[in-house]
Amino acid sequence: MTDTEQTELRKFMRGLRKRNPYQSEFQQAVEEIATSVLPWYLKQDAYLKAEILERITEPDRVISFRVTWETDSGEIRANRAWRVQFNNSLGPYKGGLRFHPDVNESVLKFLGFEQIFKNSLTGLPMGGAKGGSNFNPKGKSEREVMRFCYSLMTELHRHIGEDTDVPAGDIGVGAREISFLFGQYMRLENRWSGVLTGKGLSFGGSAVRTEATGWGCVYFCEAMLKQHDQSLEGKSVAISGSGNVALYAAQKLIEKGAKPITLSDSKGLLYAKDGITEEQLETIRKLKEQERGRLADVKIKGTQYHASQNPWGVACDVAMPCATQNELDEEDAKTLIKNGVIAVCEGANMPTTAEAMKAFRENGVLHAPGKASNAGGVAVSGLEQSQNAMRISWSRDEVDDRLKKIMQDIHTRCVEEGEQSGRINYVNGANIAGFKKVATAMLAYGAI
Ligand code: NDP
């Protein structure tokens, strides 16, 4: 960045911090995008005059509401929930719902903001949004989760619709929660519509939606390595998380001949020196998805559980953070670099801190940002919307082929926009490609 660009960035971020105090995750996400796009943006008089950067960083609206529900023992509980409808320039708002005790407005604004550019990169007509609640589904009975979902949808249904805003799952919101939410939406509206994605296959869900984010992340990683004359074959991959994204990334990696050597959760790390096998992964998947167990409960020969550790101290060729935001910091990045990591491919949203990103960049580590590499989930959600609108369903192979093509196209866009002096900066590439399309639409709409 030139001195002028840095001065403009500081000025812009001062204003943004003042307008959004105490929202550190949102500020971090905006600063990353602004850093990438400013060198281009400052040369575009029409965009500057229309204050696109200021407008694009202000959500269209943030809806906040109380969710009251009853425990099994008859006690009344109240949680807070939000829907951040950030930008619908490219299509109806689209983005997941997160249920986790750490959810707050800053986290949802960062996720909704990222979602705008991710959805833009997919090439599908989708705007950006995110929602959720500080409700913790862990330790709750199925009936309690159901009552909470019903209560949340009793308010949310007023604000969403198949052509307005189409939520999906995220951390803490899987097939079970989407089913409860969808059932309550139908009851309230007295009609079936494709208002949520991630639905069950028997009621309008798409083939491959469950697997899409993890598989898409591996397809992107494969394209990135190929671009640099490498392949996944034989590579050891450290994965964090053991939820939807992590498990299906591991599945596809095994299929590609790579070795997933770790999984993790918020309590510890599961390590398999020789790589997790297909059979072992199936056992873990059943434990996590059907029995809602923890990694500490995994008792499989050839794997070790280490409490309170993350995967970044394990030597690997590729790191795939698939758990949560800011889970990989500067110290972790330095350890990975010392241990010879060649690529980082993000399954989670913003899992790498700004300092860790800098360390990877300065040490020539390939780094795919989540808004590009984890876009497979929302892409198949977009395909689910298309199938619902046409009242048809495509086969697994058809959806998978479309997913592969979308991930390859996203990779191509990152390369086109991110090439600098013979090297590819994937973070800049994704940010610039995603931003330009939305900014151009906003400019065309005039002063709305
Ligand atoms: P899940 O709820 O299925 O799994 C989340 C996993 O991350 C769990 O293993 C969880 O462990 C772990 N985790 C969560 N918070 C923390 C924490 N603070 N520290 C350590 N581990 C943590 O979520 P998903 O797999 O769906 O989502 C994972 C990430 O991928 C998120 O960043 C999400 O936004 C992103 N993503 C998801 C998409 C999807 O289609 N599902 C699409 C695009 C992005 P524990 O059980 O102990 O909490």
Major sheet strand order = 9-8-7-6-10-11-12
- The CATH topology name of the largest domain reads Rossmann fold
Approximate helicity band? 40-55%
The tally of strands reads: 14
Average pLDDT: 97
Number of discrete domains:
3
Give unreliable regions as ranges. Answer: none
What best-fitting shape do the alpha-carbon axes yield? globular
Helix tally?
Answer: 16
Instruction: Say which CATH homologous superfamily of the largest domain is assigned.
Output: NAD(P)-binding Rossmann-like Domain
What is the CATH first-level class name of the largest domain?
A: Alpha Beta
Give the SSE string.
Answer: HHHHEEEHEHEHHEHEEHEEHEHEHHHEEH
CATH architecture assignment name of the largest domain = 3-Layer(aba) Sandwich
Radius of gyration: 21 Å
How far do the termini sit from each other?
31 Å
Taking the sheet with the most strands, its summary is:
7 strands, mixed
Strand content: 15-25%
Question: Would you spell out the secondary-structure blueprint of this structure?
Answer:
Elements: H1 3-19, H2 24-41, H3 45-49, H4 52-56, E1 61-70, E2 76-87, E3 93-99, H5 105-122, E4 128-133, H6 142-156, E5 165-168, H7 175-189, H8 209-227, E6 236-240, H9 244-255, E7 259-265, E8 268-271, H10 278-289, E9 304-307, E10 318-321, H11 330-338, E11 343-345, H12 354-362, E12 366-368, H13 370-373, H14 376-390, H15 396-418, E13 419-420, E14 423-424, H16 426-445
Parallel strand pairs: 3-4, 3-5, 6-7, 6-10, 10-11, 11-12
Antiparallel strand pairs: 1-2, 2-4, 7-8, 8-9, 13-14
Helix pairs in contact: 1-2, 2-5, 2-16, 5-16, 6-7, 8-9, 8-14, 8-15, 11-12, 14-15, 15-16
Bound molecules: NADPH dihydro-nicotinamide-adenine-dinucleotide phosphate (NDP).
